Amino acid sequence: MKALVVEEFGDSSKLKYSETTKPDPAEGEVLVKNQICGLNYLDIIITKGLQLSLESLGSTFPVTMGVEAAGIVEKIGDKVDGVAVGDRVGYVVIGSGAHADYSKVPASSLIKIPPEISFEQAATAIVQGMTAHYLVHSTGRVKPGDKVLVHTAAGGTGSLVCQMAKNAGAFVIGTTSTEAKAAKVRESGADEVILYSQKDFVEEVNRITDGKGVNVIYDGVGKTTLHRGFNCLAVQGIMVSYGLISGPAEPVEISTLAKGSFSLCRPHLTHYIATDEDLKWRSSEVFDWIKEGKVKIGDFTVFPLSDGRKAYELMESGKSTGKILMRP
Ligand SMILES: NC(=O)c1ccc[n+]([C@@H]2O[C@H](COP(=O)([O-])OP(=O)(O)OC[C@H]3O[C@@H](n4cnc5c(N)ncnc54)[C@H](OP(=O)(O)O)[C@@H]3O)[C@@H](O)[C@H]2O)c1
């Protein structure tokens, strides 16, 4: 079978579309024939060898890339219940090597895809959809009347955070880099869009909120934005640092939080879908919202898996909007 592999960590130029061995499911595992593979900023981080060690990927070089895909169950290992050959499933599993024709996945991590949901929608709903779900409903606990700031609001996760925060009754301010992306942010329901390339986002948020600041900041950017954000956070506001696209932020002094009784959290999806109950709850709510039209997932850029390097390069360039997918 074919897969996107790296033989050493680095930028996207290290990716190779290579022949590898088709995996065989062991006890408790299933073999999934991937129909569509999801690309996430995490894949860029993993390719660079940041955040996750080779050991935590459960691997030695060459490493097959990818944590997310949607496909069809092709083979079932021993001691697996409730899954049948032919089932439409999706998954997010670090170390699964999802950017490949086939992946073996623990049966306990499988998410059944309802018939109304396409493979493309599923491979977006799983990482970015469930991330937006926990960020809005568990970490930020957004309620009607809250004001929230969403960085990277035109991106895959950011656009879904905007939609879900809006649905929860919030006033949403999104930041992005270009006019073309700003139009996408408005489509996601943002009430205000800040072009951070032209205006200082702190000044703009304080202007829009009459100096009161926002109740929650969703910051997936890190180094260039996190510390500045505390200057436009409302009293008792929550700073949600969930990514580090621009690099890791400098440590935050406790005294910074004391300025407004702020909270700071650094959440990760894996901890919010760690139980079977949470995985089912978050995935089924996201799928339901897509079916009901409450959340729109349709802004896809699809590459053949054989051109996977181009998909990674697009994500790395920061020029994408919505979800980047690869078709095996
Ligand atoms: N903690 C978690 O559970 C979790 C889960 C999923 C994702 N994440 C994080 O969420 C963030 C967004 O991930 P995503 O997969 O949805 O990606 P994405 O937002 O679709 O793509 C990245 C976007 O980041 C912006 N950006 C800002 N500074 C950048 C830079 N220096 N280089 C490249 N891009 C830059 C660009 O948008 P603009 O042009 O609008 O600036 C770009 O389109 C990442 O930090 C990721 O690690 C965290």
TrEMBL record:
Domain of life according to the entry: Eukaryota
Alphabetical list of SUPFAM superfamilies matching this protein: GroES-like (SSF50129), NAD(P)-binding Rossmann-fold domains (SSF51735)
Q: Which residues form a coiled coil?
A: none
User: Where is each Enoyl reductase (ER) domain found?
Assistant: 10-326
Which PANTHER family has this protein been placed in?
QUINONE OXIDOREDUCTASE PIG3-RELATED, QUINONE OXIDOREDUCTASE-RELATED
Q: Which family does it belong to?
A: Belongs to the zinc-containing alcohol dehydrogenase family. Quinone oxidoreductase subfamily.
What is the protein's given name?
Enoyl reductase (ER) domain-containing protein
Organism annotation:
Porites lobata
